[in-house]
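Researcher: Please predict.
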Amino acid sequence: MSVHSCTVHEFPLPGREYYAAAPAQWDEPTISRPRRLAPSRRERRRSPLPLLLLLGLTLFAGGFLLGRAEAAGNRAAQAAAGTGGGGSVRVLAVPGAVHSGKEDDVSQDGWNLILVNGDHPLPEDFQVPEFTQLAGGHSIDKRAYPALQRMMDACRAAGLQPTICSSYRTWEKQTELFERKVLSCLSTASSREVAEEQAAVWVARPGASEHQAGLAVDIVDKSYQLLDEGQEDTAVQKWLMEHCAEYGFILRYPTEKSALTGVGYEPWHYRYVGEEAAGEIMSQGLCLEEYLEGT
């Protein structure tokens, strides 16, 4: 079936990012209080006690704040030095995900090498730290976007017309797509369980889709917008299969690796892993599962 076409080229990276304060900082109501008249000269002369109390409270508050600032500074220094109980924190702490032990050219926390499949699903509350919005309502993990933009630009510079037809998906969207595929398989399957197994070969179960991690895009040739094996013969796919690793992407589901990935051949599904990993995976004819098992 055909899909709507949309490109990413119309939305270059902005020169700077803007952040809004957390809602809690704006939700406190402003309460107007009655204005208090200044005390008369006679009232001010009545007793020095209020002034002494005010001075004492000021000194106490100043000492308290100074102590907190010093403690915060010590914690920050410990974190910077890698000491204390905190240690390094991964941007994406995904339960059950497999991370490479090697230092990647993009980062050392392994966010770009998380393994997402039927055996290593994402938790339902998984969240991508920050997105970059693409055209047509699409989006991708902000950290992978510059590489995607360069790859799309280079493909167009070669005179081709790459078109993104799928990118990040919510849990709800993946559930909808999976259920739709299950229903189509029920007509020939002996049970729903069998139908789900058949459906999962072509549409990942919720939590098992790389699209939900924000690191995968489906790219088709504008002249052939069908998600079938004929896609591999288009000029866009031939270019991408040859050059995608230069930009940190891999053809995630090669036809000869279906037994390992658990997913049928998809000559349109590209996953961001970083240039170093992509170069090794594509040059050695591996799938991501094999690469991570050997690291």
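Model: The first helix runs from residue 41 to 46.
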